[in-house]
Amino acid sequence: xxxxxxxxxxxxxxxxxxxxxxxxxxxxxxxxxxxxxxxxxxxxxxxxxxxxxxxxxxxxxxxxxxxxxxxxxxxxxxxxxxxxxxxxxxxxxxxxxxxxxxxxxxxxxxxxxxxxxxxxxxxxxxxxxxxxxxxxxxxxxxxxxxxxxxxxxxxxxxxxxxxxxxxxxxxxxxxxxxxxxxxxxxxxxxxxxxxxxxxxxxxxxxxxxxxxxxxxx
Length: 217
What we know:
By secondary structure, the protein is an alpha/beta fold. It has a single domain, classed as Ribonuclease H-like superfamily/Ribonuclease H (Nucleotidyltransferase, domain 5). 39% of the residues lie in helices and 19% in strands. The protein is built from eight helices and seven strands. β2 and β3 form a beta hairpin. The longest helix has 22 residues. The protein is globular. It starts with a strand and ends with a helix.
Protein backbone atom coordinates (compact mmCIF):
# COMPACT_ATOMS: atom_id res chain seq x y z
CA UNK A 1 0.00 0.00 0.00
CA UNK A 2 1.43 3.41 -0.97
CA UNK A 3 1.27 5.94 1.84
CA UNK A 4 2.66 9.36 2.65
CA UNK A 5 3.09 11.46 5.79
CA UNK A 6 2.81 15.24 5.56
CA UNK A 7 2.93 18.30 7.78
CA UNK A 8 2.79 22.04 7.19
CA UNK A 9 4.18 25.20 8.75
CA UNK A 10 2.27 28.45 8.49
CA UNK A 11 2.88 32.13 9.08
CA UNK A 12 0.33 34.83 9.83
CA UNK A 13 0.04 38.33 8.50
CA UNK A 14 1.14 41.28 10.60
CA UNK A 15 -1.92 42.35 12.56
CA UNK A 16 -1.49 46.03 11.67
CA UNK A 17 -1.51 45.15 7.96
CA UNK A 18 -5.10 43.88 8.21
CA UNK A 19 -7.90 46.22 7.18
CA UNK A 20 -9.90 47.97 9.89
CA UNK A 21 -12.97 45.74 9.75
CA UNK A 22 -10.84 42.60 9.99
CA UNK A 23 -8.92 43.96 12.97
CA UNK A 24 -12.17 44.84 14.71
CA UNK A 25 -13.61 41.41 13.96
CA UNK A 26 -10.57 39.62 15.34
CA UNK A 27 -10.62 41.69 18.53
CA UNK A 28 -14.35 41.72 19.20
CA UNK A 29 -14.21 39.20 22.06
CA UNK A 30 -11.05 40.54 23.71
CA UNK A 31 -11.19 42.18 27.12
CA UNK A 32 -7.59 42.50 28.28
CA UNK A 33 -4.20 43.33 26.82
CA UNK A 34 -3.30 39.66 27.14
CA UNK A 35 -6.37 38.75 25.08
CA UNK A 36 -5.28 41.17 22.37
CA UNK A 37 -1.75 39.75 22.41
CA UNK A 38 -3.11 36.22 22.07
CA UNK A 39 -5.16 37.20 19.03
CA UNK A 40 -2.22 38.88 17.35
CA UNK A 41 -0.06 35.81 17.95
CA UNK A 42 -2.71 33.42 16.64
CA UNK A 43 -2.98 34.70 13.06
CA UNK A 44 -0.73 31.91 11.79
CA UNK A 45 -3.32 29.32 12.77
CA UNK A 46 -6.10 30.48 10.42
CA UNK A 47 -6.05 30.21 6.61
CA UNK A 48 -7.86 33.56 6.38
CA UNK A 49 -5.06 35.40 8.17
CA UNK A 50 -2.07 33.18 7.40
CA UNK A 51 -0.43 31.22 4.61
CA UNK A 52 1.39 27.95 4.06
CA UNK A 53 5.13 28.54 4.07
CA UNK A 54 6.44 24.96 4.30
CA UNK A 55 5.13 21.49 3.44
CA UNK A 56 7.03 18.38 4.48
CA UNK A 57 6.21 15.00 2.92
CA UNK A 58 7.73 11.66 3.86
CA UNK A 59 7.26 8.09 2.68
CA UNK A 60 7.48 5.92 5.83
CA UNK A 61 8.29 2.82 3.79
CA UNK A 62 11.22 4.22 1.80
CA UNK A 63 12.41 7.03 4.13
CA UNK A 64 12.41 9.36 1.13
CA UNK A 65 10.54 12.60 0.87
CA UNK A 66 10.63 16.30 0.15
CA UNK A 67 10.25 19.67 1.78
CA UNK A 68 8.65 22.42 -0.27
CA UNK A 69 9.16 25.82 1.29
CA UNK A 70 8.91 29.53 0.67
CA UNK A 71 12.19 31.40 0.51
CA UNK A 72 11.30 34.94 -0.59
CA UNK A 73 14.15 37.31 -1.39
CA UNK A 74 16.60 34.42 -1.09
CA UNK A 75 17.77 32.26 -3.98
CA UNK A 76 18.00 28.63 -2.89
CA UNK A 77 18.66 26.05 -5.59
CA UNK A 78 16.95 22.66 -5.21
CA UNK A 79 19.12 20.15 -3.38
CA UNK A 80 18.85 16.68 -1.87
CA UNK A 81 19.99 15.51 1.56
CA UNK A 82 19.70 11.92 2.83
CA UNK A 83 16.89 11.09 0.46
CA UNK A 84 15.00 14.33 1.10
CA UNK A 85 14.56 16.86 -1.68
CA UNK A 86 14.41 20.53 -0.73
CA UNK A 87 12.64 22.82 -3.20
CA UNK A 88 11.49 26.42 -2.88
CA UNK A 89 8.58 28.34 -4.36
CA UNK A 90 5.76 30.74 -3.66
CA UNK A 91 2.80 29.56 -1.61
CA UNK A 92 0.97 28.73 -4.82
CA UNK A 93 3.94 26.81 -6.20
CA UNK A 94 4.54 24.71 -3.08
CA UNK A 95 0.85 23.87 -2.88
CA UNK A 96 0.93 22.74 -6.50
CA UNK A 97 3.99 20.58 -5.75
CA UNK A 98 2.14 19.06 -2.80
CA UNK A 99 -0.96 18.17 -4.81
CA UNK A 100 1.14 16.76 -7.62
CA UNK A 101 2.93 14.49 -5.13
CA UNK A 102 0.08 13.37 -2.88
CA UNK A 103 -2.15 12.23 -5.74
CA UNK A 104 0.07 9.17 -6.24
CA UNK A 105 -0.53 7.77 -2.75
CA UNK A 106 -3.48 5.78 -1.49
CA UNK A 107 -3.09 6.49 2.22
CA UNK A 108 -2.18 9.74 3.97
CA UNK A 109 -0.86 9.98 7.52
CA UNK A 110 -0.83 13.09 9.70
CA UNK A 111 -0.79 14.26 13.28
CA UNK A 112 -3.84 16.51 13.76
CA UNK A 113 -4.14 16.77 10.00
CA UNK A 114 -7.92 16.72 10.17
CA UNK A 115 -7.99 19.54 12.67
CA UNK A 116 -5.35 21.77 11.12
CA UNK A 117 -3.15 20.82 8.15
CA UNK A 118 -5.81 19.55 5.75
CA UNK A 119 -8.39 22.34 6.21
CA UNK A 120 -5.59 24.91 5.98
CA UNK A 121 -4.22 23.39 2.77
CA UNK A 122 -7.67 23.15 1.21
CA UNK A 123 -8.61 26.76 1.95
CA UNK A 124 -5.27 28.18 0.82
CA UNK A 125 -5.45 26.07 -2.34
CA UNK A 126 -8.92 27.47 -3.01
CA UNK A 127 -7.56 31.00 -2.61
CA UNK A 128 -5.10 30.23 -5.42
CA UNK A 129 -7.77 28.38 -7.46
CA UNK A 130 -5.81 25.14 -7.22
CA UNK A 131 -7.96 22.05 -7.62
CA UNK A 132 -7.22 19.26 -5.10
CA UNK A 133 -6.01 15.99 -6.59
CA UNK A 134 -6.99 13.91 -3.56
CA UNK A 135 -9.65 13.89 -0.85
CA UNK A 136 -7.78 14.85 2.31
CA UNK A 137 -10.88 14.64 4.51
CA UNK A 138 -12.53 11.28 3.79
CA UNK A 139 -14.62 9.37 6.29
CA UNK A 140 -12.45 9.29 9.40
CA UNK A 141 -13.05 5.57 9.99
CA UNK A 142 -12.15 4.17 6.56
CA UNK A 143 -8.36 4.12 6.99
CA UNK A 144 -7.54 6.30 3.97
CA UNK A 145 -6.46 9.19 6.20
CA UNK A 146 -4.74 8.05 9.40
CA UNK A 147 -4.70 11.02 11.76
CA UNK A 148 -2.58 9.81 14.65
CA UNK A 149 -4.09 12.35 17.03
CA UNK A 150 -7.48 10.78 16.32
CA UNK A 151 -6.08 7.30 16.80
CA UNK A 152 -4.16 7.98 20.00
CA UNK A 153 -7.13 9.75 21.61
CA UNK A 154 -9.50 7.01 20.42
CA UNK A 155 -11.48 9.45 18.28
CA UNK A 156 -11.90 11.92 21.09
CA UNK A 157 -12.70 9.45 23.88
CA UNK A 158 -9.65 10.65 25.82
CA UNK A 159 -10.37 13.86 27.65
CA UNK A 160 -7.22 15.73 26.62
CA UNK A 161 -5.48 16.02 23.27
CA UNK A 162 -1.72 16.20 23.77
CA UNK A 163 0.79 17.69 21.34
CA UNK A 164 3.13 15.75 19.07
CA UNK A 165 5.97 16.83 21.35
CA UNK A 166 4.26 15.25 24.38
CA UNK A 167 3.61 12.00 22.53
CA UNK A 168 7.23 11.90 21.38
CA UNK A 169 8.48 12.31 24.94
CA UNK A 170 6.19 9.53 26.15
CA UNK A 171 7.46 7.05 23.55
CA UNK A 172 11.10 8.13 23.66
CA UNK A 173 11.03 9.62 20.17
CA UNK A 174 13.29 12.54 19.27
CA UNK A 175 11.09 15.62 19.06
CA UNK A 176 11.86 18.53 16.70
CA UNK A 177 11.23 20.79 19.70
CA UNK A 178 14.47 19.51 21.21
CA UNK A 179 16.33 21.75 18.76
CA UNK A 180 14.81 24.79 20.44
CA UNK A 181 12.14 25.63 17.86
CA UNK A 182 8.38 25.42 18.37
CA UNK A 183 5.43 26.24 16.16
CA UNK A 184 5.11 29.60 17.90
CA UNK A 185 8.59 30.56 16.65
CA UNK A 186 7.83 30.03 12.96
CA UNK A 187 6.50 33.51 12.20
CA UNK A 188 9.55 35.23 13.68
CA UNK A 189 11.91 32.78 11.97
CA UNK A 190 10.19 33.52 8.67
CA UNK A 191 10.55 37.25 9.27
CA UNK A 192 14.25 36.68 10.01
CA UNK A 193 14.60 34.79 6.69
CA UNK A 194 15.57 31.53 8.39
CA UNK A 195 13.71 29.58 5.74
CA UNK A 196 15.91 26.50 5.76
CA UNK A 197 15.66 26.24 9.54
CA UNK A 198 11.88 26.14 9.17
CA UNK A 199 12.18 23.51 6.44
CA UNK A 200 14.34 21.28 8.63
CA UNK A 201 11.98 21.74 11.57
CA UNK A 202 9.05 20.63 9.40
CA UNK A 203 11.05 17.62 8.23
CA UNK A 204 11.64 16.75 11.88
CA UNK A 205 7.89 16.74 12.44
CA UNK A 206 7.18 14.26 9.66
CA UNK A 207 10.02 12.01 10.76
CA UNK A 208 8.70 12.07 14.33
CA UNK A 209 5.24 11.24 13.00
CA UNK A 210 6.73 8.22 11.23
CA UNK A 211 8.26 6.99 14.49
CA UNK A 212 4.97 7.50 16.31
CA UNK A 213 3.19 5.61 13.55
CA UNK A 214 5.43 2.64 14.30
CA UNK A 215 4.07 2.45 17.84
CA UNK A 216 0.46 2.83 16.72
CA UNK A 217 0.82 0.04 14.17
